[in-house]
Design a protein that fits this description.
97% helix
Length: 68
């Protein structure tokens, strides 16, 4: 009867460890997604700044053309 109890504990430990591994993997995936999202936001911000610079240059060129 002692052996049956031991096997049950081992099974529970295996299941528990498996669940812990799944949780850890999920956390790692979320961290990776957060990093990717952060990079995308930084790229979007750079693109937006570049777009603003281009708009200013375009406006300056239009003013020069009108004045010329």
């Amino acid at each position: 009867m002692g052996e049956g109890g031991e096997g049950g504990k081992e099974r529970k430990n295996v299941n528990y460890n498996r669940e812990l591994d799944e949780i850890k993997q999920g956390d790692e995936n979320h961290e990776q997604e957060d990093e990717e999202e952060k990079k995308e936001k930084e790229e979007d911000k750079k693109d937006e700044e570049e777009h603003k610079k281009t708009e200013v240059k375009d406006e300056e060129l239009e003013k020069e053309e009108r004045g010329a």
